[in-house]
Amino acid sequence: MANTVSFKLSGLKEVQEALSTMGRRQAANFLKKAETKASKVFLDAIQDTVPHDTDYLSEHMVAQAKLKGDSLTMRIGPDKSAFWGLFTEMGTKNGIRPVHWLFRAFMQAKDAALEEFVKACQQMIAGMKK
Fold first, then answer.
1. Is the full-model pTM beyond 0.85?
2. Which run of H or of E encompasses 74?
3. Is 52 in contact with 58 (CB distance < 8 Å)?
4. By the 8 A CB rule, do 42 and 105 touch?
5. Rounded CA gap, 129 and 115, in Å?
6. Are 33 and 127 within 8 A, CB to CB?
7. In 3D, which of 73, 50, 77 has the Cα closest to residue 63?
8. Where would a tag sit more exposed on the chain, N or C end, judged by fewer CB atoms within 10 A?
9. CB neighbours of 112 closer than 8 A, spacing ≥ 6?
10. DSSP H stretches of helix in 2-129
11. What is the mean pLDDT of the segment spanning 5-24?
């Protein structure tokens, strides 16, 4: 039921070079830190688009990073206690119309989140060089 938006980040030669000098766990932690900073941009954007019928949904948004093999995935959305928020995102067969509030937040924040990710990577690389 989960929709996934995936993209491959390329063109950040300095980040690629820094990651290639690290061990797997160290590289994963590096990326998690950068993704965490970028996820805050998405979490802020979600507050603008989330349905506010009750404040419960807006108060139960999470960002979780998971490393599996060579893939690091960031899941952003309602926590398990607010699972029903996905019904308003995608709609149901039984009459709940899709609102696409998560998708709208993603589209609204993706460029700023990428900038935050790059900035976080650059700061960590600068700290490694000292």
1. no
2. strand 71-78
3. yes
4. yes
5. 21
6. no
7. 77
8. C
9. 41
10. 13-20, 24-49, 85-90, 101-129
11. 73
